[in-house]
């Protein structure tokens, strides 16, 4: 029972004092202290604390002051008090939240970087691409590496991308040659092929919105997501330059 009372917001000593008072009925401090096994000075402190919470009342008989526990129904006051405190905190937060958001947004001058480990991490990184409302997304990739790590790539990621009507432009290499159509309406994709010896890629680069995703698909598989307007724009410029140079 003590733990349940503590869960409602009472301290351990408050719970012991309140339980003792429930059992004793109107009592003087000495009796309450004895019953709760808490020394008298501490009992006084806890009783005063419980009075402030509306859980203890007093009465005078002769020259003695008696204390009595209020009905357990009053424990609802604790919940109401916590609720009011949370409402006040929420209201207080709303007053300075805009200032915090301004600070957060001003930090856009610094890149936000997230790291993804392993194959599952790179799959999670791919899901970030599917959240964008900025289309087309741009990619520079080695299809050999992609299909080696993700054999079902066309039937998983590409299918989901098309379902979300997200188009793409891709510069790719492959030892199998130009295996993608230059313009494929079914896949919502424009592609340009580069010989592997001209562009020996060990990573997969994707640019979307204000983000750049870099996935290492050889050796230890991992991914990095960089969120920064200028970084993304710079990668876009590099992509467009390479795209324009491919016959």
TrEMBL record:
Gene3D superfamilies linked to this entry: Winged helix-like DNA-binding domain superfamily/Winged helix DNA-binding domain (1.10.10.10)
Lineage: Bacteria, Candidatus Yanofskyibacteriota
PANTHER family: HTH-TYPE TRANSCRIPTIONAL REGULATOR TRMBL2
Organism whose genome encodes this protein: Candidatus Yanofskybacteria bacterium RIFCSPHIGHO2_01_FULL_41_26
SUPFAM superfamilies, per database record: Winged helix' DNA-binding domain
Domain Transcription regulator TrmB N-terminal positions: 5-67
Protein name: Transcription regulator TrmB N-terminal domain-containing protein
């Amino acid at each position: 029972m003590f733990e349940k009372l503590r869960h409602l917001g009472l301290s351990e000593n408050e719970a012991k004092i309140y339980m003792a008072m429930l059992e004793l009925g109107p009592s003087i401090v000495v009796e309450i202290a004895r019953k709760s096994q808490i020394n008298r000075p501490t009992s006084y402190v806890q009783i005063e604390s419980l009075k402030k919470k509306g859980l203890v009342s007093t009465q005078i008989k002769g020259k003695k002051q008696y204390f009595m526990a209020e009905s357990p129904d009053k424990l609802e006051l604790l919940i109401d008090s916590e609720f009011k405190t949370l409402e006040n905190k929420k209201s207080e937060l709303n007053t300075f939240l805009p200032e915090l958001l301004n600070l957060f947004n001003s930090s856009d001058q610094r890149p936000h970087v997230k790291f993804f480990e392993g194959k599952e991490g790179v799959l999670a990184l791919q899901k970030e691409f599917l959240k964008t409302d900025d289309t087309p997304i741009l990619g520079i990739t080695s299809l050999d590496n992609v299909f080696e790590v993700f054999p079902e790539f066309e039937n998983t990621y590409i299918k989901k991308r098309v379902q979300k009507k997200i188009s793409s432009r891709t510069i790719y290499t492959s030892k199998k040659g130009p295996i993608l159509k230059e313009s494929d309406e079914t896949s919502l994709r424009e592609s340009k092929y580069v010989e592997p010896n001209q562009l020996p890629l060990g990573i997969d680069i994707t640019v979307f919105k204000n983000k750049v995703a870099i996935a290492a698909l050889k050796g230890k598989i991992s991914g990095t997501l960089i969120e920064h307007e200028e970084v993304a724009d710079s990668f876009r410029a590099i992509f467009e330059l390479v795209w324009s140079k491919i016959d």
